[in-house]
Amino acid sequence: MKNLTVLEHPLLARALTQLRDQSTPVPAFRHHLMECGRLLACEATRDLEVRKVRVQTPLALASGVQLRRPVTLVPVLRAGLALLDAFRDMLPEATIGFVGQRRNEETLEAETYLFKVPAVRVSEVFVLDPMLATGGSAISTLDQLKRHGARRLRLICLLAAPEGVAAMEKAHPEVPILTGALDRRLNERGYIVPGLGDAGDRCFGT
Ligand code: PRP
Ligand code: URA
Questions:
Q1: pLDDT tens-digit profile of 55-85?
Q2: Secondary structure of 186-201 in the HEC alphabet?
Q3: Class assignment of domain 4-204?
Q4: Are 179 and 158 in contact (CB under 8 A)?
Q5: Which listed ligand is nearest to 159 at the C-alpha?
Q6: Ligand 2: which residue has its CA nearest to atom 7?
Q7: Contact of 42 with 96, CB cutoff 8 Å
Q8: Which are the catalytic amino acids?
Q9: Residues flanking ligand 2, CB < 6 Å
Q10: Partners of 116 in beta bridges
Q11: CA of 64 relative to ligand 1 center, distance in Å
Q12: How confident is the model at residue 105, as a pLDDT?
């Protein structure tokens, strides 16, 4: 799993514990997902390339940096929306695309119902989806983003299953994956175990 980074951080581990707890109510669930989003955003942006600039302080010239490329954030609906604000706080200049994916609960295949993404040819593209289960939704999203011109892609999730990571490595071996935890396995219904249940339902109270 050479492209996988598991973020180890006590605050993320604490928030994830609350997210896993089935008694956590919807508002707290969204809050903890946002907390995880902030920590993931810090880590996910660590290696963004910069260019040197000079600025005039009130006292003297100082050297600094700017991001080398524009950034595009692509939350996968619905659950990816819960990570968007944290990334947007950190990257207010980012353009935003939306991809709607729904898993067919019988075949477990991803079905796309929305693809609304700005030009991404020169952007660093961050795909946001808290759950990487079979990998179907992420792979389909990345396929479509590549057809749309994206060349620099990263997948940010919170929980990943080994099955989803393996599928991603086969389909998109060059795309780095950042996750908050790598769980044990998928169950027969394609849910991550131990996981946190259905992220979209728990986030939006459906
Ligand atoms: C969830 C999740 C991912 C997908 C992961 O979405 O947010 O997008 O499942 O599963 P996969 O790796 O097997 O494709 P879901 O289809 O439940 O839609 P929702 O976010 O609207 O609830
Ligand atoms: N989607 C979810 O929301 N949870 C899982 O465990 C698997 C897919």
A1: 999 999 999 999 999 999 999 999 999 999 9
A2: ECCCCCEECCCCCHHH
A3: alpha beta
A4: yes
A5: 2
A6: 191
A7: no
A8: 103, 107, 198, 201
A9: 131, 133, 190-192, 195, 198-200
A10: 98
A11: 40
A12: 82
Is the separation of the CB atoms in 121 and 98 below 8 Å?
A: no
Residue type present at position 13? A
Q: What CA–CA distance (Å, rounded) separates 42 from 172?
A: 23
Q: Show the beta-strand stretches assigned E in 43-176.
A: 50-56, 61-67, 71-77, 95-96, 98-103, 110-116, 124-128, 131-132, 152-156, 159-160
pLDDT for residue 85: 96
Indicate the domain borders of the chain: 4-204
Ligand 2 centroid vs 124 CA: distance in angstroms?
26
Q: pTM (2 decimals)?
A: 0.96
Q: Are 200 and 80 contacting, i.e. CB atoms less than 8 angstroms apart?
A: no
Q: Which of 106, 196, 203 to mutate to test the pocket of ligand 2 (most atoms within 8 A of CB)?
A: 196
Ligand 1 centroid–CA 130 distance in Å is 9
> pLDDT tens digits for 31-58?
999 999 999 999 999 999 999 999 999 9
pLDDT in tens, 163-172: 999 999 999 9
With 0-12 CB in 10 A as exposed, 13-18 as middle and 19+ as buried, what is 54?
exposed
User: Of 118, 152, 153, nearest to 139 (Cα)?
Assistant: 153
